[in-house]
Amino acid sequence: MNCRDHCGACCTAPSITSPIPGMPNGKPAGVRCIQLDDANRCRIFGQPERPAFCGGLQPSAEMCGDSRAHAMRWLGELERITAPQERR
After folding, report:
1. Tell me: the pLDDT tens digits for 21-50?
2. Neighbour-count burial for 67-83, b at 16+ CB within 10 Å, e otherwise
3. Burial of residue 25, with CB atoms counted within 10 A of its CB: 0-12 exposed, 13-18 middle, 19 or more buried
4. pTM for this entry
């Protein structure tokens, strides 16, 4: 499956704990990654600076569904159920 044009849900919904260029402490859940361009495409896709987490998160029918809203809900729920106890 390919990424949906203009989506960027996987670069917004989950938290990323590793450094990202421009976000040295990673990013919290629900915060748009600084590396997303105006078309919601990753500026560092395929580059060594891209966090391993990002490369490991591959689009799937289950995650992406039929809309960005579905992907945001699915990823948000995954974030919630995998968060450390104090964040739940």
Report:
1. 999 999 999 999 999 999 999 999 999 999
2. ebeebbebbbeebeeee
3. exposed
4. 0.86
